[in-house]
Specification:
alpha/beta, 8 strands, 276 residues
């Protein structure tokens, strides 16, 4: 298997490079429109998609249940897609969600402001001022998205395997560099390790979405870890019955043979009235 995640600046030719990679290597392609279709199938509204998709949420939205639903189903889509097919994945934090996954190359495509302005002017038929405004707004939104959803800096080179500057490196050369990078990572051992890790991530995320959004069991700080056929549950609840309900959900999942339930019950004491 081979997975390539592409993070790109507007005007860097990143999206164009991603599409050509998928064609030349025969890989499936997942971008904004494909992601939206699957998220809607999972019950995420178009309004929430527009609200959160590669944008910085407003302050009160950071703590909203809609945000948590969007993030968790986005993880589910990523893991399911990556487990099913070899793919090129554009944006939406793929370099973070699939971090340290064998047979996966995380690439960032950048360019100088002058080069980006020139390309955006041609694409949108606008002047220098509006092109720069489009670029800065895009950078602001994407940086905010990564900071609020993942607590990571979008521009940090440390979360990528390869950073390519298309101001000085041609599209052809960029494609060759990425293809060579993928070839260097590909081995039978890495493929098996990647499949094993993705299966664990996918099972864990299916359990999270089942508990929180299908069964609507209120669990604080729910954490699910899958180790083969064993699943470990962690979190806290204020309703004792919820602990058993969570375990029952997990035991019904295909492939699960053992459950270690570490969810704890915490009394939800009412705050005393202040007195003078």
């Amino acid at each position: 298997m081979a997975i390539i995640t592409i993070s790109r600046e507007t005007g860097s030719m990143g999206s164009e490079i991603a599409r050509e990679l998928s064609k030349e290597l025969g890989l499936h392609f997942l971008d904004k429109s494909d992601m939206e279709k699957v998220l809607i199938q999972h019950g995420v509204t178009e309004m929430d998609i527009k609200k959160f998709d590669e944008k910085k949420p407003r302050f009160w939205e950071v703590f909203s249940s809609e945000r948590e639903k969007y993030l968790n189903f986005m993880k589910l889509v990523f893991y399911d897609f990556a487990r099913s097919v070899d793919a090129v994945i554009v944006g939406r934090g793929g370099q973070i969600l699939l971090a340290n996954l064998p047979c996966t190359l995380h690439v960032r495509i950048i360019a100088s402001m002058d080069a980006r302005v020139k390309r955006v002017k041609e694409e949108f038929s606008c002047d220098d001022r509006n092109a720069e405004r489009i670029i800065r707004q895009s950078d602001h939104d994407r940086a905010g998205f990564h900071r609020f959803f993942f607590d990571m800096e979008w521009s940090s080179p440390y979360i990528y395997d390869m950073v390519i500057n298309t101001s000085t490196i041609s599209k052809k050369k960029a494609l060759n560099l990425i293809k060579q990078g993928v070839a260097d990572l590909d081995s039978e051992e890495n493929r098996k390790a990647a499949v094993k890790k993705l299966e664990a991530l996918l099972l864990s995320q299916r359990i999270v979405t089942k508990i929180l959004f299908d069964k609507k069991i209120p669990v604080n700080l729910l954490r699910v870890e899958a180790e083969g056929s064993k699943v470990i549950l962690e979190g806290s609840v204020t309703i004792m019955q919820s602990i058993k309900q969570c375990e029952e959900v997990v035991r019904e999942m295909p492939g699960v043979e053992e459950v270690e339930n570490k969810i704890v019950f915490i009394h939800n004491y009412p705050l005393p009235y202040a007195t003078l």
